[in-house]
Design brief:
Length: 137
């Protein structure tokens, strides 16, 4: 299986998100919550994202990227740890957003997130914003 094909591999939560959350975001959990900010769907991520917690992030990103032409901002400013499991979730969500005519961008002011994306060769795929456009910070 190619890396791109793996990005599109179904995850257990994808079907659930498609069926249950077409019009409303999933309930907030300890690692993610979804909100609207103007034209953006903002997925705020908190704490540690790893193999054990990626499903909580995936639930929100799956729902956020289902709408056509969704403009999704993934706010990683409150993340304390983010590993390749989280990167895999981001790659799948970005592919899904792009396939629906939308986009997915990262919000972070942490140099470690930029280093992680650069090290994984994903810095060009995920534009990084320092904050949510239109919000005072």
């Amino acid at each position: 299986m190619t890396p791109d094909a793996d990005d599109r591999a179904p995850r257990p939560t994808e079907g659930l998100a498609a069926d249950l959350f077409r019009s409303t975001p999933p309930a907030a959990n300890d690692h993610a919550r979804t909100r609207r900010c103007g034209a953006f769907t903002v997925v705020e991520v908190t704490g540690e994202i790893d193999l054990a917690t990626e499903v909580f992030l995936a639930e929100h990103l799956n729902a956020a990227t289902l709408r056509p032409e969704a403009d999704v901002l993934v706010d990683l400013r409150r993340v304390t740890f983010f590993d390749c499991s989280g990167l895999r979730v981001l790659c799948r969500a970005e592919t899904r957003a792009r396939d629906h005519g939308g986009r997915l961008r990262i919000v972070s002011d942490a140099p470690r997130i930029r280093r992680l994306l650069r090290g994984a060769g994903l810095l060009d795929r995920f534009p990084i914003l320092p904050g949510i456009p239109g919000e005072d910070g």
